[in-house]
Each structure stands twice: as C-alpha cells, then as structure tokens.
Write a structure and sequence with these properties.
CATH superfamily of one domain: Ribonuclease H-like superfamily/Ribonuclease H
Shape: globular
Order of helices and strands: HHEEHEHHEEHHHH
Helix content: 40-55%
Distance between the termini: 39 Å
Radius of gyration: 18 Å
CATH class of one domain: Alpha Beta
CATH architecture of one domain: 2-Layer Sandwich
Strand content: 5-15%
Number of helices: 9
Strand order of the largest sheet: 3-2-1-4-5
Length: 245
C-alpha cells in the first residue's frame, strides 16, 4: 500500500489555498485521494473548545461512507446553532462510524491544552467501533498514534470528514456546557459555553472559578492568584472560537 504522505506532515498552506480556489466548501477530495492509495476506513478528526476558560475540550472522529452527500456541511464555526443541530442528526444517520472523546478542565490544567486535545482525539479514535486505517486531521499531529495520518491546514474547511467531525464535536460540547449551566446557573454557561465573553468575565469576578474552570488560563489564574482583575482590558480575545492559549 502506498503512503499518501508521511505521518505528521501537514498539507502546505499553498496546497490548501489551491484547493480553496478550485473548490467551494469541504469536499471529498482528500478522502478520495486516500482511497486511491489503498485506504478504505478513513476518519476525519476535529475538536471544539480549545479556547474557553471553562469546560472540556471535545474531539470527534467521523468515518463517512464512500458515496454520500452531506449538503450544508462546513466548518462548524461557519454555521449557526440551528444548522449545526440539524447537520448533527444528518451526520449521525449517515456516518459509518462516530467516536467522541474529551479531556476535562483538570486534565487540561495538568497536561496543557495541546496535549489534552491530543488525548481527547485519541479517545475519540478509540470510541470508533472499527479502527480506521487512515486519519485526516485539522492541522493536528498525533504522536504515539500508529495509524497513518494527514494533518491538513484549515482542514475543517476543506475535508468533508473533518468538517463533519467539527460539527459533532461542537454540538457535543455545547450540550455538555448546557448541562453544566444547570449545575452552575450563575455563570450562564448556556449562553457563552465557557468562552471569555464580557459577561463570563463579570460572573467570574463576582463568583470566582468553579470546578470546571481552567485554572491555568490567564484570566482564571490571575483572578485566583490575585495578580490582576479580570475586568481589566485583556490583550487576548478570550471570547473568540479561534483564540487558543
């Protein structure tokens, strides 16, 4: 069996840009290329929740059938909550396999967010009924995972499998944060999902951190240490989906 690329090497930004110029939205091109190299059980992986101040990071692994149409599937950040929920159901009905894994706030604080994300991804792979023979990831390498893989820069906007995984991960995490809202209603996790919005920072200043806050993240750490008030202007935008510590 010929290898598509060496494990751990990312598709270059030029390659991704070239695909982006020719194709609109995620397609099956990367999956088809893997199949031409002999791979048959190809999983897309992505995560949700690297940037928030509270809650887990969640990863999903999705294996799609060779012939399937998933209209509207895109990077989860480009979709509304209603669109994500609808597509979540469609993906669950269509996929050959779905695995979900997570790492909680304590694991994030212990390992760091990069290694916790990798842990969540390994758990997502382990959650698949059948081990995939090839992985497509959103620019993430997975040391210690022996399955051949292809990290793709902006993969959730280019690969249909990675985009599907991004939706599964995002919806799963949002539902987890909704359950945490029931346990800790004064933070209003239902609204901001743990991201560092102005509202969240105000509640954090008023009530202090709870069990699911990430104490190694600067706004929480500085509040606990008493070195800075979280109401001061921050150079880092903790409210953004794309901002990662």
């Amino acid at each position: 069996m010929s290898r598509l690329v060496r494990t751990g090497r990312s598709v270059t930004s030029d390659r991704a840009a070239d695909l982006g110029e020719r194709l609109v939205g995620p397609t099956k091109e990367f999956e088809q290329e893997a199949r031409r190299c002999g791979y048959r059980h190809i999983a897309g992986l992505d995560e949700a929740g690297r940037g928030p101040l509270a809650g887990p990071v969640v990863a999903a692994a999705v294996v799609l059938p060779f012939r399937c149409r998933l209209r509207g599937v895109n990077d989860s950040k480009q979709l509304s909550e209603v669109q994500r929920e609808r597509l979540y159901s469609v993906i669950c009905e269509t996929a050959v396999g779905i695995g979900v894994g997570s790492a909680d706030a304590a694991e994030i604080d212990s390992l760091n967010i990069l290694e916790a994300t990798r842990l969540a991804m390994r758990r997502a792979i382990a959650g698949l009924m059948r081990t995939p023979d090839y992985l497509l990831t959103d620019a993430m390498t997975l040391p210690g995972v022996e399955i051949p893989s292809r990290p793709i820069i902006k993969g959730d906007a280019l690969s249909i499998s990675i985009a599907a995984a991004s939706i599964i991960a995002k919806v799963t995490r949002d539902r987890i944060m909704a359950s945490y809202h029931q346990a800790h209603p004064h933070y209003n996790f239902l609204s901001h999902k743990g991201y560092g919005t102005d509202e969240h920072l105000r509640h954090l200043a008023s009530y202090g951190p709870c069990a699911i806050h990430r104490r190694t993240y600067a706004p929480v750490r500085e509040l606990v240490d008493g070195t800075k008030t979280v109401l001061e202007d921050e150079a880092f935008d903790w409210s953004s989906e794309d901002d990662i510590i």
